[in-house]
Amino acid sequence: MRIASLVPSATEMLFALGLGESVVGVTHECDFPAAASELPHLTATVLPAGLSAGEIDAAVKAIVGEGKALYSLDEERLAELEPDLIVTQAVCDVCAVSFEDVVEVAARLPGPPAVLQQDPSSLVEVLEDVTRLGEAAGIEARAAELRAELEARLDAVRTAVAAAARPRVVALEWLDPPFVGGHWIPEMISIAGGEDVAGPSGAKSPEVGWEQLSGLDPDAVVAMPCGCYVAESKAQAVEHWQRIESLGAERVFAVDAASTYSRPGPRLVDGVELLAHLLHPDLVDPPGGIGFTELSAPAGARSYSSRS
Questions:
Q1: What is the mean pLDDT of residues 132-160?
Q2: Cβ pair 35, 51 in contact under 8 A
Q3: CA distances from 262 to 79, 81, 92, 144, 225 (A)
Q4: What is the pLDDT of residue 298?
Q5: Cα separation of 220 and 96, whole Å?
Q6: In this predicted structure, what is the pLDDT of residue 99?
Q7: Over 90: is that where the pLDDT of 122 sits?
Q8: Residues near 1 by Cβ (< 8 Å), separated by ≥ 6?
């Protein structure tokens, strides 16, 4: 089977299922595992490089407000790759080529190829997507095995933090302007032994004002700006340090959001393990290879590991 992946989370899921050699094309944002970045790119963004967080937000709102697409799909190259299956998403209007555009293009291709839509709003639904993708690719047994492995890791975290006090957490999915983490983020925090006091579980991440976050009395704030690795997460947190500090949290972290929180794939489980370590460092070890930084002042931060 020849598979085109039009969303990074699906690419990661395909490789985790052992289907890397079947993947013939990916997005311009697919960078994990390393082999994925070497495959033909089927998408491009209209956003120029080098924009600040605030400029990205303003540009996205302007483009979407005009009814234009944020991403383009290379139909000619897609046709040359002759996929049997295209995996795409509909969970986020500003994260990938729109589902409607993919369906329209696929209908014009020889075959035409099947289109699998992934649209999770919770961690449970991400795990269900593992099963669905395995069924679409004809590897149901391997999908069941991977899902069982991921669920076992989540159960291990639940067990480790079961008797611990639950810190109050604010997860910032963007900082200029502030968005709080929705979708699967509150569920991840809960499994990790915390209480999300700001984000709506299973719903889109809402934009909020800093004043709306005052009075929530968090024990911890986690900066996880969508699509950013730890260096950029740290930079955004430092830039808005006075706002974050005013929330009164005892501990503030910047994390590798691109790897472990933004993409609804297998590495969300790494994100749960990392959150459990941040909230309960004596009970849960950090997962390997995932960057995070505990911030103590704008002038510097104490780093544990990083990926820029």
A1: 98
A2: no
A3: 29, 28, 11, 24, 8
A4: 59
A5: 31
A6: 83
A7: yes
A8: 19, 22, 84, 85, 137, 138
- Report the C-alpha dihedral over residues 18, 109, 77, 68, rounded to 10 degrees: -100
CA separation for the pair 220, 225 (Å, rounded): 16
Tokens 């992946």 map to which residue? 5
Query: Which of 39, 16, 15, 35 is closest to 27 using CA atoms?
Result: 39
Our measurement of the distance from residue 169's CA atom to the centroid of its chain's CA atoms, rounded to an integer in Å, reads 18
Closest by alpha carbon to 113, among 140, 135, 82? 82
Locate CATH 3.40.50.1980 in the chain. Answer: 3-124, 166-305
- Whether 159 and 153 have beta carbons less than 8 Å apart is answered as no
Amino acid at 202: G
Q: How confident is the model at residue 307 (pLDDT cuts 50, 70, 90)?
A: very low
Cβ proximity of 133 and 14 under 8 Å? yes
* Model confidence band, residue 182 (pLDDT cutoffs 50, 70, 90): very high
Above pLDDT 90, what percent of the chain? 81
Q: What distance in Å separates the CA atoms of residue 86 and residue 7, rounded to the nearest whole number?
A: 10
Closest CA to 268 of 140, 91, 4: 91
* Weakest-pLDDT range from 138-142, 179-183, 288-292: 288-292
Q: Could you tell me which residues come within 8 angstroms of residue 48 by beta carbon, excluding any fewer than 6 positions away?
A: none
CATH no. for 3-124: 3.40.50.1980
The residues that bridge with 25 in the sheet, in sequence order, are 4
Is the domain spanning 166-305 CATH 3.40.50.1980? The answer is yes
DSSP3 helix / strand / coil % (the chain, rounded to 5): 40, 20, 40
Copy the structure tokens of residue 105: 């293009």
